[in-house]
Amino acid sequence: MSTPNAVGRPTPITAATVRQRPTAMPVHKYTPYEAVEIPDRTWPDRRVTKAPRWLSTDLRDGNQALIDPMSPARKRAMFDLLVKMGYKEIEVGFPASGETDFAFVRSIIEEGAIPDDVTISVLTQAREELIERTVESLRGAARATVHLYNATAPTFRRVVFRGSKEQIRQIAVDGTRLVMEYADKILGDETVFGYQYSPEIFTDTELDFALEVCESVMDVWQPEEGREIILNLPATVERSTPSTHADRFEWMSRNLSRREFVCLSVHPHNDRGTAVAAAELALMAGADRIEGCLFGQGERTGNVDLVTLGMNLFSQGVDPMIDFSQIDEVRRTAEYCNQMEVHPRHPYVGDLVYTSFSGSHQDAIKKGFDAMEADAAARGKTVDEIEWAVPYLPIDPKDVGRSYEAVIRVNSQSGKGGVAYVLKNDHKLDLPRRMQIEFSKIIQAKTDAEGGEVTPKEIWAIFEDEYLPTPENNWGRIVLRSAQTSTSSDGTDTLTVEAVVDGAETVLTGTGNGPISAFFDALASVGVDARLLDYTEHTMSEGASAQAASYIECAIDGKVLWGIGIDANTTRASLKAVVSAVNRAAR
């Protein structure tokens, strides 16, 4: 397709990408990540239908990444939180790294803080003195796992250790044997003991070599029925797309011997910002277990976020087996322990994640809530008993302990839906659509003039000032005192109203085919030219003392305006609505 330019020649319409230009950034320094050849890969067709085994490493990988590592009190608060949430595998430290971690492990064992169904895990490098100290920290534990690791990637073999593949493999083998020896010597039969091995930097390790090392470790441990081994394949640094990561997991899962006795564990970091996706796809590719931290705490860009992973399952109808029902309590404790705030946009827990400012979003949310209520009523159920289906809200905020108060917040981008939602949710006023438009323009004028957000309290104050004169601020030409109606034999209504008109006590009388029509007739005697355009009402609550809200759209002296009246008596509410509209016209 082309269009003529100023001199009549066709000008091609090109895509935006064509106009992009190369940068001076040193892209030559980096090479593409190696793909995995699996023509018959199966993971893309799989679905995650149950929760994996979870391990929290907040007290180890998370803690070591803090500017101010946790004090003993903060560590204990984190441990107690993880137990309360339902985590059954918790990595509690690196006890051979120093007295602080060692003392913490001893404290939770000696104080009986570990429930019988919780397994603690401790990390160690493959040096004998470190392994002995690590196992010693577990003395008296009912259930414990020693997690041994050594780096296997080419860069580490060449630069850090200056060792051959065989030397690196032997480190893992010797370390495994030492763990077994010290566990037997120190722990004996008192502890249900488990073993975990990680080829660190798995993401940069050749797959065949990673497999060789894992097989050699298994040859020592001898996994069998009732004696599993945890093989953890860490993305110590995230280096590839989640799909390639999944390919690596499927390759390992296919090629490991004794697979039925292996718990294949994934440990993603978030260097490329895709740790959650990498973990989820690894599950599809055969992983059994995920290691991570609450809210993605951890080295550099963090470990994978256990909260997002768990809530993603929840949002798909899969029980995460972890309790997130009081997510703000979880956040507050994590912020205290880590001394780091959770971002307001953080999935599922940030201050703004259930909040919409956009007018179109707010309108859709309001309609979604209304549709849910109608659907539930039609099915004879409560809203909580039917499928969640509200636009822009992937889950019901109430399910994680949030209220609906902050779902819609109003600023200059908001429209009628947001304002209407606040009034309905906070004040039980279900404004007719055209009245929503009218009032939203009033709010829009304020936000355009002053900028920033308008709080629900401010919205109500503006609404009262615009539509509902109060005894403290009783503006307007007319103040309704009382009203009485009578109906003649021909169906004509006569309305007698005691009112204050322009500051003077007055009695007005009018007739019509209903109280509203009769009131318009009465108002004509004081110079008000009004006619009814639309009328609607609803109860604001249930019970004998319930109040009604009446909404009236009127044409008054050439202006089209809405009024609202609230009263326990529906007739009086409708008359108040007329007064509201008339007074607004005279303002």
Automatic annotation (TrEMBL):
Residues 470-587 are annotated as: Regulatory domain. It is found in: Cytoplasm. Pathway: Amino-acid biosynthesis; L-leucine biosynthesis; L-leucine from 3-methyl-2-oxobutanoate: step 1/4. Gene3D superfamilies: 3.30.160.270, Aldolase class I. SMART domains: LeuA_dimer (SM00917). Keywords: Amino-acid biosynthesis, Branched-chain amino acid biosynthesis, Cytoplasm, Leucine biosynthesis, Magnesium, Metal-binding, Transferase. One of its GO terms (molecular function) is magnesium ion binding. It catalyses: 3-methyl-2-oxobutanoate + acetyl-CoA + H2O = (2S)-2-isopropylmalate + CoA + H(+). PROSITE patterns: AIPM_HOMOCIT_SYNTH_1, AIPM_HOMOCIT_SYNTH_2, PYR_CT. Its EC number is 2.3.3.13. GO terms for biological process: L-leucine biosynthetic process. It holds the Pfam family LeuA_dimer. Mg(2+) binds at D61, H267, H269, N303. It is an enzyme of class 2 (transferase). Its cofactor is Mg(2+). GO terms for cellular component: cytoplasm. Residues 52-328 form the Pyruvate carboxyltransferase domain. Catalyzes the condensation of the acetyl group of acetyl-CoA with 3-methyl-2-oxobutanoate (2-ketoisovalerate) to form 3-carboxy-3-hydroxy-4-methylpentanoate (2-isopropylmalate). NCBIfam families: leuA_yeast (TIGR00970), PRK03739.1 (NF002991). Homodimer. This is 2-isopropylmalate synthase. It comes from Actinacidiphila glaucinigra. The lineage of its organism: Bacteria, Bacillati, Actinomycetota, Actinomycetes, Kitasatosporales.
